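One such shown below:
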Amino acid sequence: MNSDDITNALEVTAKLMELHNENPFKIKSIAAAAYKLDKLRYDFEGKTQEEISSIEGIGKSIAAKIHELLTTGTTKELTELYEKTPLGVVEMLGIKGLGPKKVRQLWLELNLESVGELLYACNENRLTTLKGFGEKTQAAIKLSIEFKLANNNKFHYASLEKPVKDLVEFISEQQNELQVAQVGQLARKCEVIDKIEILLDGKISADISPFEKTIPLKINFILCEPAEFFYKYVELTSTAEHLEKINFVGLDSTEFFDDEEIYTALNLQYIEPELREGLNEVDLALNHDIPKLIEMEDLKGILHNHTTYSDGVHTLSEMAGYCKGLGYEYLGICDHSRSAFYAQGLPIEKVLEQQKEIDKLNLTFSNFTVLKGIESDILNDGSLDYPEEILKTFDFIVASVHSNLKMNEEKATERLIKAIENPFTSILGHPTGRLLLARPGYPINHKKVIDACAANKVSVELNAHPYRLDIDWRWIWYCLEKKVKISINPDAHHREGFHDMYYGVCAARKGMLSKEFCLNALSLTELKQEFLK
């Protein structure tokens, strides 16, 4: 089991215990450990129970549960909880807006034992008969169920990329005479995956069953003749719209030795697999106008990160040292602002304390700088979360919405634009607040928001966390058209979160971002000048 599996098992244990009215102190302890691990993404492979218990926030009792999960795949306690809970009731716990206490009401008072029954009950207006449930709650639950059902059997790119890559590499190593490649959505690095396709020019003889057990989707293996491998590769990595635009029918009788040769034969600039969406990439390729896409090596620093000052796992010095070790020039610290009570947002005295620590820390570094930032909550009226005398002490400010995400498009857009117009705003953080497969984005008029960023010299964040990837890459083209820079930020709450920059770069490349329009591809000197504009 990996860290995500263990976190999920602990979360489910806590929820089922609460569902059955068990010891509240024990529930709180397990839930807190799950919350900690969710941020940490700890690698448990080969770790002893004693080593696990030494993790901050994980005591001996929780360590024993984790060790049992690693050893057996479950715990005796979780097994017993599952045995006395209908499967459909367990599934109801996964509906956004429904905590264990409400699910218990639905189960015991309305005799609902499945998500389907719950949806039907919403349509029949039955939830409003329960204490604590009103029409608004019922409507919100109905929307959450419909959203969840629409996203069944879909997975984040980040959760499938490595296991499928490992499978492809294993097949290649075991049968080096075979040509094998990922195609389809994975080849295009789509943010959400509902189909896995692998192209081969021969049959698999190696035992791949251990890999198939780690991959939650059915794998579609597609066989072709060796001579047509790259023709089929282009065909299967492309959307129907892309294929229609390149019109490569008739080339199937020619043997190609890589996919670049196919685009050359079509008198087109080479189009990377992640761009083969059928948007504007073919028109640009006709005139060789596709820019050199951004790469990880182009990034000079990492902005928008959290520490133990708010809800991060690692200290300021730990985050800085790890970032420097990765070869970056600078790190932007952006802990939560004071209105974010749920995330231990910084009161003014804590802001000043952190800034003093940053000054001291910078004296210990050469060729590396920690920048003073904040992730300032955008309040309901669009204002930022501190008075001007505090805002001006930061090197830069990421302005983000975290609350009241149910405004209509007009009000939501006005709120963001007011924050963008604030002279202290440097970057608009995760503009829609979406969580892929969990929460749709804040309803905004993207063009008006991006226009405001252009007018006020504000960059737009591409939040690199694989569950966010917000701004959506489909809007990067409009940012580029308006000369608005994109800041690829991991929103890291722990050191390992810095590695999410890779997923941000994947999304940025789909949006055709080049290093010239990436804020954190600037050197430290250039970045400071940019923040002064």
About this structure: The chain has 24 helices and twelve strands.
